[in-house]
């Protein structure tokens, strides 16, 4: 841990691959053996603490956040002082040499670090991250853009880098409906609610059993009651969970320590479902954040998703302070909104 405190804000990397061999495509990246995955995570400097899978994908809780492995897509989200971008080279190598898969798109996103000076290279600045990405990614990913999406507060901006080839391989559909990715970052959590993510000294529980209790006690299990949940409670505090429901995932990570409290919620969803109101209400109820950002990534943002998000958050006592849109070549759009509490807590 950094001397100053634990960095809750995650770095998130999403890589898409393609291949010609149908026997590999069916399971694709899921066929990577556990040793190879561990080598990738070693480069990032984190480890697997728990895992679950279904017919569509595998979800791993990590010592620092989460990993999702689909046949042609991998999502790694890591916090603290991990070196997430160092996973790219080994992943490209293993996917190509063990599975015959080729990288066709890369998306890297993160919020603003609470302790930027504690980050190791290449996460020392967004400029360093972009230089590293530019130098590491193969030339077929020719459509590239880096952007810092601002908010009204200098300490809350959304950093996005995308690189894609011209195959349009990263758009995802669920029963013909386009999927979005929603990433919520919350700081200044209600200190009483944050206590739910501390363990009692000497509780003699395992990380799994203590995690399960937190999932139930806090109401996290009600966000998507259909999801199969894999959860873990750290000692003395901290919590991570992955939920899997068909080919959709959700994930929550909590750093509850006062002074640098942070929680994140992320999921994929379809614009046709009207669950975003329920999700926002539950997530805000569980954490009561002083500040919250919501980022939506999708290929077409004409459906006004942000108005639904803003009205759900405003109904829960938060006020929308900013809304920024940006488009990325061959990689869709991102809408970034920030909210703060209306009342002094
Ligand atoms: C890994 S979890 C959740 C990460 C997530 N990005 C977040 O901050 O919301 C981080 C929390 O667990 C605590 N923690 C306790 N032991 C830990 C360990 N061995 N590795 C990582 N975090 C640990 C940290 O102090 C922090 O409160």
Notes on the protein architecture:
The chain has 345 residues and is an alpha+beta fold. The protein has one domain: S-adenosylmethionine decarboxylase (4-Layer Sandwich). Helix content is 23%, strand content 36%. The protein contains eight helices and 17 strands. The mean pLDDT is 93. S-adenosylmethionine is lined by residues 6, 8, 10, 63-65, 79-80, 234, 237-238, 240, 253-257, 262-264.
Going by CATH, the homologous superfamily would be: S-adenosylmethionine decarboxylase
Q: Count up the helices.
A: 8
Q: How many structural domains? A: 1
Instruction: Tell me the span between the first and last alpha carbons.
Output: 29 Å
**Which class of secondary structure composition applies to the elements?**
alpha+beta
- Which kinds of small molecule does this entry bind, naming each only once? S-adenosylmethionine
């Amino acid at each position: 841990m950094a001397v100053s405190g634990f960095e809750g804000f995650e770095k998130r990397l999403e890589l898409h691959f393609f291949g010609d061999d149908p026997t590999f495509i069916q399971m694709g990246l899921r066929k990577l053996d556990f040793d190879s995955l561990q080598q990738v995570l070693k480069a990032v400097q984190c480890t697997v603490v728990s895992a679950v899978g279904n017919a569509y994908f595998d979800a791993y809780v990590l010592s620092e956040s989460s990993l999702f492995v689909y046949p042609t897509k991998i999502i790694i989200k890591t916090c603290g002082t991990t070196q997430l971008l160092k996973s790219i080279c080994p992943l490209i190598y293993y996917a190509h040499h063990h599975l015959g898969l080729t990288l066709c798109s890369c998306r890297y996103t993160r919020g603003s670090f609470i302790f930027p000076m504690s980050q190791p290279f290449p996460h020392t600045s967004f400029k360093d991250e972009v230089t590293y990405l530019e130098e590491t990614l193969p030339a077929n990913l020719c459509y590239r853009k880096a952007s810092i999406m601002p908010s009204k507060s200098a300490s809350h901006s959304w950093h996005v880098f995308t690189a894609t080839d011209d195959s349009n391989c990263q758009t995802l559909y669920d029963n013909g409906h386009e999927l979005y990715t929603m990433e919520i970052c919350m700081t200044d959590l209600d200190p009483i609610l944050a206590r739910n993510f501390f363990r009692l000294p000497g509780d003699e529980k395992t990380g799994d059993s203590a995690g399960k209790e937190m999932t139930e006690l806090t109401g996290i299990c009600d966000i998507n009651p259909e999801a199969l949940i894999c959860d873990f409670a750290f000692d003395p505090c901290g919590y991570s969970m992955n939920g899997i429901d068909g080919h959709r995932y959700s994930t929550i990570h909590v750093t509850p320590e006062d002074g640098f409290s942070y929680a994140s919620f992320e999921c994929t969803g379809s614009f046709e479902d009207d669950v975003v109101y329920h999700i926002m209400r539950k997530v805000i109820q569980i954490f009561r954040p002083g500040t919250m950002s919501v980022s939506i990534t999708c290929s077409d943002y004409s459906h006004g998703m942000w108005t639904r998000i803003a009205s759900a958050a405003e109904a829960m006592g938060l006020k929308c302070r900013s809304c920024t849109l940006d488009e990325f070549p061959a990689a869709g759009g991102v809408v970034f909104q920030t909210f703060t509490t209306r009342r002094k807590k």
